Amino acid sequence: MKRTFFLFWAFLLTVTELLQAQAPCTTPMPTARFRQKYDMIVSLSSEVQRLNRAKGLAKDEYLSSSQVKELADLFINDYNRLDFVQTAYGHITDKENFYEVYDAFAYLSNAMRLYDFVHSVQQPPPPPPLVVVTEPQFPALNYPDYNNYMGPSSCHPPLAENDFIVIIKEVFNQNSEAARLLIAGQVVQSNCLSTAQVMKTASLLSLENNRLSLVKTAFGHTYDVGNYTSLTQLFTHLPYRNSLMEFINENATPPPPPPPPPCSVNHEELTQVLESINKQSFNSTKVTVAKQIIIAKKCFKTSQIKEILKLFSFEDSKLEMAKFAYDFCTDKQNYFSVNDVFSYSSSVEELAKFVNGKH
User: Whole-model pTM?
Assistant: First the structure.
């Protein structure tokens, strides 16, 4: 009798656990308990330990998007951050707020990898194509030749065709229209293209409104803008053609570029820079903010770069920032003095190798 009662009770517990496992949870871990687990992870001495403990927590508990982002910010390595967030995604209670997590990444490429992962989870994979196309295919249009072009130009020189094909494959290999538009926008804004290259890039988009948006963005980054009317071939609908022609007429003569800002950072500005970086709580955020400021200010002396590097506790972050800041240094002949901030000779050697490779 007792054995029968025990087996029946075990059966009820098993059924209950299965039902609980199948029922979606909409309540994240309570704040007080999360803070306790968070502090325990922060106290761990190595990145690997923190990653393993955080992944274990994500597998055992349901978390909110903000809790996942807070844990993701603990990692120095962006790939560890991606590994953790992918593990945690299945137990996030408010996926409608998941966009907040993308802000945790220092590199756009990893944010895009997470984007692809999320959509692969949410959407069933498409059926395999009958014919696998590995190279971009462009429509048979009348592509203008920029050789011997003497008209107005927004930039120069245009990207070499071989380099363009390598870059455009990144757009072609995206699986969705939204992802193609995003990468294509980055391509046209980061390079000087010919009108023919803009046409080929826009042709990889299926929707004509997306094509129109892209070619308008690319206008300020095109070498032979005098040939821009050729882009009307991309549009079958008259309103889009008319919109493009109006845009070209309004922007026929690109405005001169603004004068470059003074290439220096004074004492007061440096003080503000150091305060802005130092008030960040997490090392990864310090790195991101420091890079943003360096790009914005553009010109730093070696002595000023050393002051910035001293704000970082981790040797790899100092080395990463020293490499990044080199291109923005106004007295590169003195850059050897940056070696004073490093604790290990291996860092000095790696920076020297990096600098030598720049010459």
Answer: 0.37
